[in-house]
Amino acid sequence: MSAHVSNSAEPKVVCVTGAAGQIAYSLLFNIARGDIYGPNQRVILHLLDIAPMMEALQGVVMELQDCSLPLLAGVEATSDPKVAFNNADAAILVGAMPRKEGMERKDLLRANAKIFKEQGDALNTVAKPSVKILVVGNPANTNALITLLHATSLPKENFSALTRLDHNRAIAQVALRVGVSVEKVRNVIIWGNHSSTQYPDVNHGEVEVGGQRKKIKDVIADEAWLHGDFIKTVQSRGGAIIKARKLSSAMSAAKAIVDHMHDWIQGTPEGEFVSMGVHSTGVYGIPAGLIYSFPVTCKNGTYTIVEGLPIDVFSRTKMTETADELVSEREDANQILSA
Ligand SMILES: NC(=O)c1ccc[n+]([C@@H]2O[C@H](COP(=O)([O-])OP(=O)(O)OC[C@H]3O[C@@H](n4cnc5c(N)ncnc54)[C@H](O)[C@@H]3O)[C@@H](O)[C@H]2O)c1
Ligand SMILES: O=C(O)CC[C@H](O)C(=O)O
């Protein structure tokens, strides 16, 4: 059965880098069936990967055609970032090496920093001023910062890093603990870096039990768990998946990418906030200029950091710890890129 699709609106151009990789393999179908822009908006996919992957990428293009999706108005596969980013409304930067068991974060930065410098330069030259950029490739926050610093003609508010996967992981852990389904849990926060220093915080979160909305911390009523195993589980979930699968998370990463872009473009429900890695303006005492994960609401294609939440001593220590890691990653990136 095919849905009725209005042909009147111009198709949105969505660029996905790392398009022959495993996250993209879970992601592209969802974008092409309308999960980001909605059921009445056609999309054109621009797929970027490196030259040696072009044959594999052609296979992905064939599969997208074979999905026979009414919203998919075109697919362009290329190894040239300037072709890929040209005219893009959204650019999802997945293409980067994933961490393997035994690899440290700095090894990853060394392997991936140059990709984001090159892609920042390309975005600077060809991107639409309104392009929405989501960096997924790790270390995602610092790669987003590198991209932003090389795409100086674009507003800083166009750049983001994926921490929605961590946000979804935190919601899932709370839902499992309370014994409710995930849609009953809202307003958890991931502060800081998409790394093991991130701070998953439930102090402002709510869970619906017995038809009533209550504070997560009151319902769980176990500070040792909330400050201990809960935080550890969310912080180390990516590593646990690598250990088990011998591959980095992909299905859940693709779902989180869709959630992030959908909410940024379509808006967050009234009274709800989500976590996005965005440019810090110095709010909550976080050094300005970092790409740091904050609670945000989204409306009319714009995100707004939720300000004024009370921060207790435990939270402050955790928020500073993850900010310190980002400051140190920024120094490492500068060193690597100037070598
Ligand atoms: N932020 C998050 O929540 C999150 C979650 C999961 C994975 N990740 C990260 O996403 C990245 C991709 O993961 P994956 O599992 O899809 O990896 P993968 O190895 O399966 O795919 C990566 C793809 O990127 C391509 N690539 C490499 N250099 C490129 C370049 N310069 N331009 C375009 N494409 C390029 C590769 O050829 C490959 O096809 C990794 O860095 C991983 O750590 C982030
Ligand atoms: O390299 C890691 O430990 C994390 C990989 C990925 O970003 C994830 O969160 O699943």
UniProtKB/TrEMBL annotation:
GO BP annotation list: malate metabolic process; tricarboxylic acid cycle
Residues engaged in binding NAD(+): 49, 112, 136-138
Reactions performed catalytically: (S)-malate + NAD(+) = oxaloacetate + NADH + H(+)
Residues holding substrate: 99, 105, 138, 169
Swiss-Prot/TrEMBL keywords: NAD, Oxidoreductase, Tricarboxylic acid cycle
Record InterPro entries: L-lactate/malate_DH, Lactate/malate_DH_C, Lactate/malate_DH_N, Lactate_DH/Glyco_Ohase_4_C, Malate_DH_AS, Malate_DH_NAD-dep_euk, Malate_DH_type2, NAD(P)-bd_dom_sf
GO molecular function, one term: L-malate dehydrogenase (NAD+) activity
Cross-referenced SUPFAM superfamilies: LDH C-terminal domain-like, NAD(P)-binding Rossmann-fold domains
E.C. numbers: 1.1.1.37
Enzyme class: oxidoreductase
Catalytic site positions: 194 (proton acceptor)
Domain Lactate/malate dehydrogenase C-terminal residues, every copy: 163-333
Domain spans labelled Lactate/malate dehydrogenase N-terminal: 14-159
Annotated HAMAP family: Malate_dehydrog_2
Family statement drawn from the similarity comment of this UniProt entry: Belongs to the LDH/MDH superfamily. MDH type 2 family.
Name of the protein in its database record: Malate dehydrogenase
The species this protein was found in: Capsaspora owczarzaki (strain ATCC 30864)
